[in-house]
Amino acid sequence: MPSVNFSFDAYNDEQVRLMEEMCILVDDNDKKIGADTKKNCHVMENINKGLLHRAFSVFLFNSENKLLLQQRSDEKITFPSLWTNTCCSHPLNTPLELDENDQVGVRRAAQRKLQHELGIKPHQAPIDDFVFLTRIHYLAPSDGIWGEHEIDYVLIIRADVDTEINSNEVKAVEYLSLEELRLKFENPGDWKFTPWFKLISEKFLFTWWKDLDNIKVKKDEKIHKLGFDNL
Is the dihedral of CA 94, 152, 229, 185 positive or negative? Predict the structure, then answer.
């Protein structure tokens, strides 16, 4: 995919650097077809031509069954300042994170990003404790330049963790109960949410959350296409 030319002068240097990471390109069936920079994967001009990449969304619940949410940093190039689930990012085009056996590559990426964004140490979020639930395929514009077009692996982990946020990635964190989050969706006030978080919550999250202790884990081969009817 040709690189789209424009200036990064208005953006944070660290966020610009991270735009050179190599994401995993996939087809609609989540089969790897190549790799490209995070920048190229998130430019709407490329997304509108069909460029699709692999991602993950982590939902971390503590022992009180409260969900850890993060507010994305104002420095983020895509969806700055919005509230979202615990951690959202991408497995990279590296041997460790390309490993598709039991989604271990995605789980490794999730552990890596929990530490990078929230300072959660790997021993508090062991790879084997991440539970893969399903995948969603969605497209969401961020602004006139940037957006998301992903096959997103949804992971749940239950853990009591210590956080030390990376302010370049995260502006704030908050634990919410199921009912508190419902109220935020109904009466958001100054809370604004990422589109993927709203889509996953409306389709799956509240059902899972009601029975976390007995959640039935089975391999979900279906890729759920969400949100395209709202575009």
Answer: negative
- Clarify whether 87 is annotated catalytic: no
Cβ-based neighbours of 44, under 8 Å, separated by 6 or more: 141, 144, 145, 146, 147
- What pLDDT score was predicted for residue 229? 62
Range of the domain at 25: 13-230
Question: Would you state the pLDDT for residue 60?
Answer: 97
Question: Looking at residue 67, which CATH number applies to its domain?
Answer: 3.90.79.10
At residue 143, φ and ψ (nearest 5 deg) are -155, -160
Q: How many domains does the chain fold into?
A: 1
- In this prediction, residues 43-64 reach a mean pLDDT of 96
Cβ 101 vs Cβ 84: under 8 Å = no
Q: Which of 23, 88, 97, 169 is catalytic?
A: 88
